[in-house]
Amino acid sequence: MGNSASHSPLLSSDRNAAPRQMVSASMRTASGPTHYGRALYLAINVAILIFLLAPIAIVVVFALNPTPFIQFPPVGVSLRWFEKFFASRDFMHALGFSLQIALLTTVSATVLGASAALALARGNLPGTRLIVATMLSPLMLPAILTGLALFQTYVLLDVGRPTWGLVAGHTLVTLPYVVRTTLAVLHNFDLRLEEAARNLGASPLRTFFEVTLPLIKPGVLAGAIFAFIVSFDQFPVSLFLVSPGNETLPVTLFNYLKFDLDGTIGAASVVSIVLAFVVVVGLDRTVGLRSYVKL
User: Fold this and answer.
1) Cβ contacts of residue 267 below 8 Å, gap of 6+?
2) pLDDT (tens digit, 9 = 90+) per residue, 98-133?
3) Residues near 133 by Cβ (< 8 Å), separated by ≥ 6?
4) CA distance readout (Å), 5 to 15, 71, 145
5) Single pTM value for the model
6) 109 and 223 in contact (C-beta within 8 Å)?
7) Distance, CA of 43 to CA of 57 (rounded, Å)
8) Using DSSP, how many helices (H) and how many strands (E) does the chain show?
9) For residues 230 and 227, what is the distance between their CA atoms, to the nearest angstrom?
10) 209-221 burial by CB neighbour count: b if 16+ within 10 A, else e?
């Protein structure tokens, strides 16, 4: 009896150890596919990032290469093409004009797009889906067709190619970005917050500026950023609507490529990329975009 009693704890421990080993073995076999799945997911994301960033890297190498053509490996680093770009009166005028058009387009597209999104989300308008599809249609149409249609319209109206016509064309192709991002924020908007403000005596205008606008600000700012970047780099619409002497930077680069090809094109492209980055960082510093983004 004593011996059987002394061996019973060992037998019970062996019985408990067997299920543990089976569970650990099953966990190892289950973690194997999960590990390979994560590795595959990481590899795909790295490949996508390389695919997206490789053109930017090539442009930077082209801009810093002392030779007037792309050469790998680079023979050195030079800022001669940046000096040529900033010393060119045509490029500087085009850069300033592009910034002016982009800022005017951003303001007009943001005001019109946010107002339209509010009307579509709150107005209970008949045919809302058709209106939204119509306002988003410039995203589905080739921009060159939009530019050609606007050019023919201006010719029929006999207004020439004024600056406001160029701003109107850029606003047309950037408006969908503001509408879409603002509608996305308004989709989850809690109307009880506005009702509470109205019940506390706030006027409709004060309710909008102190309750509604701060809550939809992420969507509005995101649309404004898209509007600025798309307008600044817009080529097809600008090609039809610019006038001689008032050409945007993409059109000036296009005309430059007709007669010469050197690192100045890469330098101008790097400047455009840096400007877009500065706009995003500037908004993050002044408005605080990170407070609205949950990674």
Assistant:
1) 63, 81, 82, 84, 85
2) 999 999 999 999 999 998 888 888 877 787 888 888
3) none
4) 16, 84, 92
5) 0.77
6) yes
7) 20
8) 12, 0
9) 5
10) eebbeeebbbbbb
Angle between helices 263-286 and 249-257 (to 10 degrees): 170
Note the pLDDT of residue 295.
34
pLDDT digits over 7-45, tens only?
A: 555 445 555 555 555 545 555 554 555 777 788 888 899
Please name the residue that has the structure tokens 């050195």: 76
Q: How far apart are CA 100 and CA 174, in angstroms?
A: 15
Count Cβ atoms below 10 Å from residue 150 Cβ, excluding itself. 20
DSSP tag of 210? I
DSSP sequence for 237-251:
HHHHH-BTTB--HHH
Domains identified in the chain and CATH numbers: 83-292 (1.10.3720.10)
SS3 content of the chain, % helix, strand, coil (to 5): 80, 0, 20
Residue 29, SS3?
helix
Q: Name the amino acid, one letter, at 278.
A: V
**Cα–Cα dist 233/67, whole Å:** 26
Residue where the block lists tokens 């059987």:
4
Cα 17 from Cα 111, distance rounded (Å): 69
- Residue 47 tokens read as 């490949």
Look-up: residue for tokens 């700012």? 221
